[in-house]
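Design request, tokens follow.
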């Protein structure tokens, strides 16, 4: 951290003689939730480095601007990240805070995820229109309309609750809640529980969807800190934020998605558990209407003896993540678990299910 505190070329200087501490510029989306998430990461960094100053820079992304089209139809993998990465590339910001589920499994080569913070609830949550307070998805009237921007949620829930209809709903959390409450179009909407918790809106949650009802998105509930891959000072600074359990789980999940060549245009979902040194990964793929699906679970040991754990791989990125301070052997095991589970599903016909889902989505 000496370099960040020094008066080197990219530090903020005072009168030209006395060097002043460098200000760390943090990029974020402009939404209220994104700002809350970024503030929480900056607060953790301030606790670790009380001498540093931080400036938060907000901006709008493609995904924030295009609100009349379903996410899965826009055809852009970096909907919520591209503009932020452009600012990172131009040295306008030093790091960017994202919801990890928004980050593609393959990042541009100049960038890496330098930290994955401790995961909050990865589950999905249902918020009901006030007139259906106290209901569940199972007790909603026939042909009730449920809003979700996610093919993953819609495919699983159509299969589980065939009496319901699902319709795309876009906008930030505030906008979606307003659409639910002020109009009669939706009986309920499905959102990530973690976002609702961070906004302080837990009281609106009418039902949590556990894995037996709906597997969650890769990385859901975790925050990722993206930095320039060659910015060693900032990489060293943010790595204190890594939460090992979250890291292993998210490496496995991202490796699974990457090997399937999935994205937001196809229904792919996961569930991970780390217990007694064993990492369990459940992964599934669905057709758009939920009628066709494959789901399997595999596990691996991540208690790797030290002599096998680390070595010449210190600079390796795993599915876009750099974590030099965490066991390389355990990271490798987590990555291999994701790849193995993806191969198992591919051998059982996952590619055909996903190809059809992609074609149907493109044709809609």
């Amino acid at each position: 951290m000496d370099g960040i505190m020094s008066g080197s070329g990219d530090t903020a200087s005072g009168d030209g003689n006395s060097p002043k501490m460098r200000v760390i510029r943090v990029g974020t989306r402009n939404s209220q939730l994104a700002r809350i998430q970024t503030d929480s990461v900056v607060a953790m960094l301030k606790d670790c480095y009380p001498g540093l100053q931080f400036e938060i820079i907000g901006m709008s992304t493609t995904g924030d601007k295009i609100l009349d089209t379903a996410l899965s139809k826009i055809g852009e993998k970096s909907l919520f990240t591209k503009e932020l990465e452009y600012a990172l590339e131009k040295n306008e910001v030093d790091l960017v805070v994202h919801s990890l589920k928004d980050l593609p499994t393959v990042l541009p080569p100049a960038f890496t995820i330098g930290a994955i913070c401790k995961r909050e609830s990865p589950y999905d949550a249902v918020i009901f229109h006030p007139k259906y307070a106290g209901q569940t998805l199972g007790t909603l009237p026939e042909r009730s309309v449920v809003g979700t921007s996610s093919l993953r949620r819609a495919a699983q829930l159509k299969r589980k609750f065939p009496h319901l209809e699902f319709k795309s709903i876009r906008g930030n959390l505030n906008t979606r809640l307003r659409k639910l409450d002020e109009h009669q179009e939706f009986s309920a909407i499905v959102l990530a529980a973690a976002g609702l918790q961070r906004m302080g809106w837990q009281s609106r949650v009418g039902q949590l969807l556990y894995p037996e009802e709906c597997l969650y998105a890769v990385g859901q509930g975790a925050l990722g800190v993206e930095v320039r891959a060659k910015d060693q000072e900032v990489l060293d600074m943010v790595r204190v934020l890594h939460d090992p359990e979250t890291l292993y789980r998210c490496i496995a999940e991202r490796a699974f998605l990457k090997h399937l060549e999935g994205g937001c245009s196809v229904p792919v979902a996961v569930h991970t558990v780390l217990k007694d040194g064993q990492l369990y990964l459940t992964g599934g793929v669905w057709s758009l209407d939920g009628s066709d699906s494959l789901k399997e679970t595999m596990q691996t040991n991540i208690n790797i003896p030290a002599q096998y754990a680390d070595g010449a791989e210190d600079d390796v990125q795993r599915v876009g993540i750099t974590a030099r301070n965490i066991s390389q052997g355990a990271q490798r095991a987590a990555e291999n678990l994701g790849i193995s589970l993806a191969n198992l599903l591919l051998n059982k016909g996952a590619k055909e299910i996903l190809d059809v889902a992609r074609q149907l989505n493109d044709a809609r």
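Comment from the thread starter after seeing the answer: thanks! Confidence is low (pLDDT under 50) at residues 5-20, 63-79.
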